[in-house]
């Protein structure tokens, strides 16, 4: 249930980065006009998320309500 509340699109305040968490455990990150700049798998445990990018690097982040802190970025949940 915790995972489901984080599924969706997370966006930086300037809209440059759009990070989508898909229900199938995959993610897609767009940067500016480049869709699919990063893709890979994610796993959420509580408020923490860990990534394995398709290129092989790993990353993580933490959720605090509708704010998502990831790799030095602050993203906000996009409303449906």
UniProtKB/TrEMBL annotation:
Pfam assignment, any one: Atu4866
Domain of life: Bacteria
Name of protein: Atu4866 domain-containing protein
């Amino acid at each position: 249930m915790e995972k489901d509340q984080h599924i969706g699109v997370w966006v930086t305040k300037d809209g440059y980065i759009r990070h989508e968490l898909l229900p199938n455990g995959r993610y897609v990150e767009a940067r500016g006009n480049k869709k699919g700049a990063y893709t890979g798998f994610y796993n959420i445990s509580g408020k923490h998320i860990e990534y394995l990018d398709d290129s092989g690097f790993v990353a993580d982040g933490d959720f605090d309500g509708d704010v998502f802190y990831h790799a030095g970025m602050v993203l906000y949940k996009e409303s449906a």
